Amino acid sequence: MTDHYGRVIRYLRISLTDRCNLRCRYCMPAEGVPLRRHEEILRYEEIVEIAKAALSLDIDTFKLTGGEPLVRRDVPALVAALKNLPGTRQVTLTTNGLLLGGQLEALLAAGLDAVNVSLDTLDDGQYHALTRRDYPVAAVVAAVRQAAGRLPVKVNAVLLPETADQWLALANLAADPGVDVRFIEEMPIGKGEADPNLTADRVLAVLRGRWPDLAPCGEHRGNGPAHYYKAAGLAGRIGFIDAVTHRFCASCDRLRLTCTGTLRPCLCYDDGIDLRGILRSGAGPEALQKAIRQAIAEKPEAHCFGARHGSQQTMNTIGG
Length: 320
Ligand code: SAM
Ligand code: SF4
Description:
It is built from ten helices and twelve strands. With 320 residues, the protein is an alpha/beta fold. It has one domain: Aldolase class I (TIM Barrel). Strands 7-8-9-6-5-4-3-2-1-10-11-12 form a twelve-stranded mixed sheet. Strand 5 (153-158), helix 6 (167-171) and strand 6 (179-184) form a beta-alpha-beta unit. Helix 1 crosses helix 9. The longest helix is centred in the last third of the chain and has 13 residues, at 285-297. The relative contact order is 0.17. The mean pLDDT is 91. The chain binds S-adenosylmethionine and iron/sulfur cluster (SF4). Iron/sulfur cluster binds at residues 20, 22-24, 27-28, 66-68, 96, 118, 315-316.
């Protein structure tokens, strides 16, 4: 379906939980999130009903996110259910990678199409300070290597002042075939704060010290708004998502569903439509479809990061 600004909306990010086994400082409060009652969270059958309504409007690409989606039980069952819906183009997952290794085979068997693994540093000390937990980085890197070659893998690294010495090491993960590495500007959402000094140009200057031929390749890879570079010495690509300095809103093709069933037209604004209420009122699929149309109609032209009065919710709630 096309919105008021001519954007074709075809992508739904689905948050499975706002809980997480990490406490990334830009995303989660140190104390975690208040416990929600079980019945507040959408059940898998409800997510599938929403996906069916979305598919009827040509929204055919689903990304499972969170919080950490893999802390929720039996994610492969949901992947399989979504993949089996007529018309589904892709089901992908965004994870911090800690539980990925143990669930990879089941996710592949369920038909998962691609995975994004969030990893901002390869240094254990930095990782522990940033995530406020003491898991080893090696566990995440092992999961990335295990997944590479089985399905497309993107490593997503948020650009942070304290991890600037990691850009080369992170980019080098793209030496593995099947792994792209993307650097993402921190967004001023929840606990996040954009740092105007951490730009794609600065990262590129450092990376070109090692890969002088690193150049834009104009490829569109996956479903995200990244722009990509390639170098002869890297099998994968290096991408940049500069949401703050270069707005990507003109090509934004997505809606977001929170784990409690609110459909949000834009990452930046807290407004949304209560799909859970509609589902549980017993209204039929037409009511869901109408609500999704309304969310698309209400999708703002652009985000509000510059104004700094956008979402007060943290990213674990919105789903990134
Ligand atoms: N737990 C999973 C993970 O970390 O991939 C999925 C949810 S997480 C909210 C999704 C993505 O949002 C992660 O890549 C994370 O780095 C990113 N993120 C969270 N807060 C952010 C912020 N303030 N600015 C930019 N990216 C952010
Ligand atoms: Fe958890 Fe992902 Fe947020 Fe980190 S970015 S706290 S891993 S939800």
